[in-house]
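Below is one such protein, fold included:
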Amino acid sequence: MSFRKRLAAALAIVGVASLLTFLQVEANEETDDQISDEAVWSAGSDDLRAIDQACKNAGAAGYSECFIDQMGGYASSDAVAFTQLLASQKPRRLGYLAGMRESGIVDLGYVAYPGNAQPSQGWALMNGVPALINVDDLSILPETEMEKDAHFKTLRNDHPTLELAVLNEQRQPGSSPQIQPLGDGGNRFVVPYSLKEDCTGCAPIAYVNFGFDFDAAGQFLGVKFLSIDNLHH
């Protein structure tokens, strides 16, 4: 083979290698989510019972750590990492990622909280900045803005113990918050909550909506009170 042919062949090999490297980088960038579907754990009831049995003597303080340790025998490392990330937030809460829905820059996670015969459900906003926002953490909601609303004041007069709550039926797998585009290319997730009296088993009095805003790069901009809706009977 002549020098020119050897050089052409070598350049072709380099070109193919460079193209493969480029495509790999592009693929990584397209799926560069911190939390992917690899973190989803389809936990069976037998698995949860086995973990609960192993951790029943851990006490309230050590149950979360025990659960996470035991979870490694049933779930992927990504699933365990999600549970660790959720448990590291304040207030601390033990849950696992039961499903997810890609929603653009920021994705929706379906969280299951074990501890009862039927795990309670929740939502989380994922893969923005920060990587995880638990929308069911009521402490991050601007309640003072809601309390200035005339509709809320009327409801509070009639129901003095009125408070925010998250009901399972508002967080069912397959459900989703409404997503509204913002003018700068970002998105707003309109997340519903319930207003109910401070009593076990009491039905909600009304629904309230808060907006979780993100810019075009997925940076979390904050939460805004939006509206209170009457129940439709």
Observations:
- The radius of gyration is 23 Å.
- The beta strands are 96-101, 107-113, 120-126, 132-134, 162-165, 178-181, 187-197, 206-214, 220-230.
- Residues 14 and 20 are 10 Å apart (CA to CA).
